[in-house]
Write a structure and sequence with these properties.
Structural class: alpha/beta
Number of strands: 14
Radius of gyration: 26 Å
Mean pLDDT: 88
Bound molecules: nicotinamide-adenine-dinucleotide
Length: about 500
């Protein structure tokens, strides 16, 4: 079976590579030419443990290819996975532009029955929206010249509403709307024949994007939509994809369900539980999971804050809580607040989804706000330890939102650095993998060769990410190079008593 994955980011690249490793033929598509060129020349645009080897293995076996040609990939594939980004809008809602654009592009490329699988995290109702978009645009796509239909026939069959809309579009977006073609677009259809760029329009703007030059009217190929949210964690994405706790499949089509079961057959063999449901439930499952985990992290952070006030030890509390089978020990590690590309945006989006259905999700709104405050409290700790920020130099260990990734999206470390800079401090930092990404948004801080460089001459050292290599620092060397021996351990990697005995002014989160 041939599969196309649209969006070759953290989720798309891992999904495509792992499905290829299951023995399927996979084409990963991205509109970012640089990314695709890099992949085609043997590079990997992101860091994930074991990913590079698995890509090489499957490329060599001719099961995995990379392209920017979405149309060809869709036409050649039976199943199309969508794995594009769904970032936050300013109001916290999920921005669906990338999804909508891809749905349009798929519509123009359908040539026979396909299963369209949404892996992106999307609000309830998006499966229906994708279906609606594909239905709407399928009949307005292109017939290649070799289809041999005379342009006048096509022109006659174009509904006047389409012509009117394309005229309006031509006026408001004269150079960017309708794709170029050397073949014929009938002038009387009102479509600009010399427009340069295909498919740059957006659904909401009623663009009429075309490839190949002729409008196809009334040709509809059957398709089914499946919601198949992804639960992998960055930093262990390949392992998580191949050993998931569950697979969620939301669809109303038995035909599509059978195809999905075929795709995931290797996971059936290792007894992975499958949750088969409707698309609304599947969509909400993903938000419920991420928001619950964000809540759990926030809860232990608040317990940690309380521990500092009452003199209790959050580690012992977390351990005792985790021993309760109803609670489980995971996600009970206090720190500077959750970050990353998923929890923050998904928690905000779920608040927004609830609101749009007339329900105020009070507890989750409180989580979002407490998580923001957690970063501010960490800043207060730093300020308190060094005695104000102006003119101070703070060494930061870790920029990634967690260990084993180069991803800095909504990283608490990055947020804290921004607040430090705003407060007049200078920052020296080190991260094993994320410095290249950080340089793009924080060009004016000092990037160091290693942990000891970051500590050298700093007024305090802050451990912001729980990289394993930060757990075994040469503490005496650190103490020697710091201006003053202040260590703020936002991930509780060290034992307070040991550090104090070594002569550090040491503070963790939630324990003395
Ligand atoms: P990402 O930003 O890393 O990757 C998205 C990719 O899609 C980019 O490479 C982008 O260039 C490409 N793209 C966008 N529009 C395109 C188009 N029209 N044609 C072709 N390519 C296009 O995002 P990600 O982290 O992989 O996340 C993707 C989705 O999966 C999001 O909805 C996210 O919430 C969800 N998710 C992410 C994770 C995670 O850990 N990152 C885990 C589970 C679910």
């Amino acid at each position: 079976m041939r599969i196309a994955i649209i969006g070759t980011g953290y989720v798309g690249l891992v999904t495509g590579t792992c499905l290829a490793d299951f023995g399927l033929s996979v084409t990963c598509v991205d509109h970012d030419e640089k990314k695709i060129n890099l992949l085609n020349s043997g590079g990997v645009p992101i860091y994930e443990p074991n990913l590079e080897d698995l890509i090489q293995k499957n490329v060599s076996a001719d099961r995995l290819t990379f392209t920017t040609d979405l149309e060809k990939a869709v036409k050649e594939s039976k199943v199309i996975f969508i794995a594009v980004g769904t970032p936050s809008n300013d109001d916290g809602s999920a921005n669906l532009k990338q999804i909508e654009t891809v749905a349009q592009q798929i519509a123009f490329s359908l040539n026979e029955y396909k299963v369209i699988v949404n892996k992106s995290t999307v609000p309830v109702g998006t499966a229906h929206r994708i279906k609606e978009i594909i239905n709407k645009y399928q009949s307005k796509s292109v017939i290649p010249a070799k289809a041999g239909i005379h342009p006048s026939v096509i022109a006659r069959s174009i509904p006047s509403s389409v012509i009117a809309r394309s005229e309006a579009t031509k006026q408001s977006h004269p150079s960017s709307v309708i794709p170029t073609s050397s073949s014929v677009i009938p002038a009387k259809a009102g479509i600009h024949p010399s427009s340069p760029s295909p498919l740059r329009g957006e659904y909401t703007q009623n663009f009429l994007p075309l490839r190949g030059g002729r409008i196809k009217v009334g040709v509809k190929h059957p398709f089914d939509i499946v919601s198949n949210p992804e639960f992998l964690r960055e930093g262990s994405a390949v392992y998580d994809f191949t050993h998931p706790d569950k697979i969620v499949i939301g669809t109303d089509s038995d035909r599509a369900l059978k195809i999905m079961q075929e795709i995931y057959r290797p996971l059936y063999l290792i007894d992975t539980p499958f949750v088969i449901t409707n698309s609304e439930t599947a969509e909400l499952i993903k938000y419920a999971c991420n928001s619950f985990l964000a809540t759990k992290i926030t809860f232990i952070n608040e317990i940690a804050n309380l521990c500092e006030k009452v003199g209790a030890d959050v580690h012992q509390i977390a351990r005792a809580m985790g021993l309760d089978g109803r609670i489980s020990p995971k996600f009970l590690h206090p720190g500077p607040g959750y970050g990353g590309s998923c929890f923050p945006k998904d928690a905000r989006a779920l608040c927004h989804i609830a609101e749009s259905f007339g329900y105020e999700f009070k507890s989750l709104k409180a989580v979002v706000s407490a998580n923001k405050r957690q970063r501010e409290l960490m800043l207060e700790k730093i300020k308190g330890l060094v005695g104000g920020l102006k003119g101070k130099t703070i060494g930061i260990l870790g920029l990634a939102f967690k260990q084993n990734t180069d991803d800095i999206r909504e990283s608490s470390s990055i947020d804290i650095i921004k607040m430090l800079l705003k407060g007049g401090a200078k920052v020296k930092c080190f991260d094993p993998l994320a410095m290249d990404n950080a340089k793009k948004i924080l060009p004016d801080i000092t990037y160091c060769e290693n942990e000891y460089d970051a500590a050298l001459g700093s007024d305090a050292l802050v451990i912001a990410t729980e990289w394993n290599q930060f757990r075994n620092l040469d503490l005496l060397r650190i103490k020697k190079v710091l201006k003053s021996p202040i260590l703020l351990d936002l991930r509780n990697l060290y034992d307070p008593t040991t550090l104090k005995a070594l002569g550090f002014v040491y503070e963790g989160v939630g324990r003395k």
